[in-house]
Amino acid sequence: MCAKATMEEFEALLNESYEIDTPEEGSVVKGKVIAVEAGQAIIDVGYKMEGRVDLKEFANPGEAPEISVGDEVEVYLRNVENARGEAVLSHEMARREAAWDRLEKAYADENRVDGAIFGRVKGGFTVDLGGAVAFLPGSQVDVRPVRDAGPLMGLKQPFQILKMDRRRGNIVVSRRAILEESRAEQRAEVIGKLAEGDVVDGVVKNITEYGAFVDLGGVDGLLHVTDMAWRRVNDPKEVLSIGETVKVQVIKVNKETHRISLGMKQLQDDPWDSVESKYPLDSTHTGRVTNITDYGAFVELEPGVEGLVHVSEMSWTKKNVHPGKIVSTSQEVEVMVLEIDTAKRRVSLGLKQTMRNPWEVFEEQYPVGTQVEGEVKNITEFGLFVGLDNDIDGMVHLSDLTWEGRGEDVIGNYRKGDVVQAVVSEVDTDKERISLSIKAVEGDPFAEVVDGVKRGSVVTVTVTAIEDGGIEVEYEGMKSFIRRSDLSRDRAEQRPERFQIGDKVDARVTNVDAKTRRLGLSIKAREIAEEKEAVEQFGSSDSGASLGDILGAALKKGDDN
């Protein structure tokens, strides 16, 4: 009976022992390394259970394992017994479980965690957080894109946990957040010491098309391209290079946004302070073309002082031409100062003013009445444009094409490219106009014919046509017309039909009209004038002689002569 009781007590104690001390699968237990062989550590976890763990599970990324016989380690009991009767253990899973507990607490408290980057994956890197593997996106490595992450590999450094999911085993961390926080503290400290107007040294970190970023010792300031020099800077790389140490002035500091504006030209004398004295109005200077636009060209008079040559001030003759066809970038040109506005920092320059007005030169070389030669450049409904010296044109109006007929009838005889002779009839330098006359080249036949013919003169004409209203006559090749009322003093003789074509008739000149190129003729006026002259010579009002006697005597005297 006693023996039976003893056996039952022993069995109860044994079962109780198994229930209390035997570790459950899926738990973390402590064990002792009893041997290291064949790349594995043999670990005794008690309860007559031993298991094997690969040595690599005891090594940090990039390091050799540090494990030796007698070391106490924590392992994860995956299975109590495998096919070989050994416990299935994992040191890595034990570390992971401990790490997850630690990381979840750090994530909840928003604390930093230490880790090391040990691998590269698509879109970023893998980080060992002391047993748990996290993902580090490429955008979260640094505040600026990192081209070579080699120096960061295996380096123990702090990270910020952005997101974690234990069930899925996902952890996302950021190195950039740590750097930005540290940088913000450093920036605030540096900015607190800066004041507008301070002159400091900095290092050029980055260059863009609009300026350069300068490191002032933990905080960057923007040096805009317009503040690099008083002169125009088209490319910041012409002035600065990355890594260069420069002296700059603090122009503006925004304490809230931590933005700093810097300037280099502010440390130099402003060339505009002496512009008015160095470049008086109407003075000429040599400058360099720096930029060409649709409305003109910018010319640099000295570094920092540029003036605009408006397109209207570029050429006397080229009115509708793009400035790029008159000057080119970097070309040296002579210009005249036309206007200065120091408040707006503007200088108006003239290019054509350095050359003589071609219309004035033409007037000196070809005064009115001079014959010139030129090529027909254009034909319009009102005349011809003829190319002359110094790229200027003269115009031949329709009325100056021919002496006979209408200009509209003869302009069709001309073509572009024809070389013509013309006489200068007028030069207007203010309106930049030159009037030419082609018909004047051969002289005015009317003027030659009527030379010496005055009003009151008696000329002999030839009848060329008989009409109801009078007769057409010709004098030295010039046509004229005698109206019916001027054919005779006697109304009964005012009949055109009493004349024959070819008859020679004497008529008195009543008008010489150079504009209409016509002679006013009258037979009647000649007869009246002859009668008056006869009365004055051969009779008087009290002589008693009849008019017939007087005229007869005058005619007889004429016949005797």
Automatic annotation (TrEMBL):
Single Gene Ontology MF annotation: mRNA binding
Source organism (scientific name): Rhodophyticola porphyridii
Alphabetized UniProt keyword annotations: Repeat, Ribonucleoprotein, Ribosomal protein, RNA-binding
UniProt cross-references to CDD domains, sorted A to Z: S1_RPS1_repeat_ec1_hs1, S1_RPS1_repeat_ec2_hs2, S1_RPS1_repeat_ec3, S1_RPS1_repeat_ec6
Lineage: Bacteria, Pseudomonadati, Pseudomonadota, Alphaproteobacteria, Rhodobacterales
GO biological process, one term: translation
Presence of keyword Cell membrane: no
One Gene Ontology cellular component: cytosolic small ribosomal subunit
Protein name: 30S ribosomal protein S1
Domain of life: Bacteria
